[in-house]
Write a structure and sequence with these properties.
This protein is an alpha+beta fold and 184 residues long. The protein folds into two domains: 96 residues, no CATH class; 75 residues, CRO Repressor, CATH 3.30.240. Helix content is 55%, strand content 10%. The chain has nine helices and four strands. It has a four-stranded antiparallel beta sheet. The longest helix has 25 residues. The termini are far apart. 18% of the residues are buried.
Length: 184
């Protein structure tokens, strides 16, 4: 019974190291694939996340499941989350970890390269526009793909603050469309 619950210091170190490796791999994948990977999940996406969790658990805990190993993996993941939270507060850490928002529409014009970059389809964009009460592209001032994976819809005719949009990739498209930047 104790062999199912206990863990040696060597095994605890191996679990922590495997957990750190899988955490870093997941962060790199999210950075490469973009925040779309974590946004509004479909049933397929949810199944993939569950599979990711299983893969990470298997890699961290190995062949023989143990309560001690699970606790070490959980504590390691929570510690890594805390460290990444502290890193995000620094300029370097923020640039490394946090995805910047991306402009998908400047007025009624869809910015196709940004749509591809964020892995957003026209069907998803249209759905979000409808949810925002937009019935025609002429009613759009801007659509931003946020770091969380959500789409923010700014209606046409609303003032757009340059300060609010300064971190948005592609913001220059807003000003090209004839919209004048407004100060905060």
């Amino acid at each position: 019974m104790t062999e199912l619950l206990g863990i040696t210091w060597l095994e605890a170190g191996a679990v922590a190291l495997a957990t750190i490796g899988m955490y870093i791999a997941l962060i790199v994948l999210v950075r490469l694939l973009g925040q779309r990977m974590l946004s509004g999940m479909s049933s397929y996406d949810l199944a993939a996340v569950i599979a990711f969790g299983g893969i990470i658990a298997r890699a961290a805990l190995g062949d023989s499941p143990r309560l001690g190993g699970g606790v070490v993996a959980l504590v390691t993941l929570v510690g890594l989350q805390a460290i990444s939270g502290l890193l995000r507060r620094t300029r370097f850490g923020s640039a490394l970890i946090v995805n910047r928002p991306v402009l998908l529409m400047a007025g009624p014009e869809v910015i196709e390269p940004h749509m591809r970059r964020c892995h957003v389809t026209h069907l998803e964009l249209d759905s979000r526009l409808r949810l925002a009460g937009v019935s025609h592209p002429s009613q759009v001032g801007a659509v931003v793909f946020e770091p969380s994976g959500a789409l923010s819809v700014i209606r046409a005719g609303q003032p757009i603050s340059q300060a609010v949009f300064e971190s948005v990739i592609g913001v220059e498209h807003l000003w090209e469309e004839g919209t004048q930047p407004r100060s905060r």
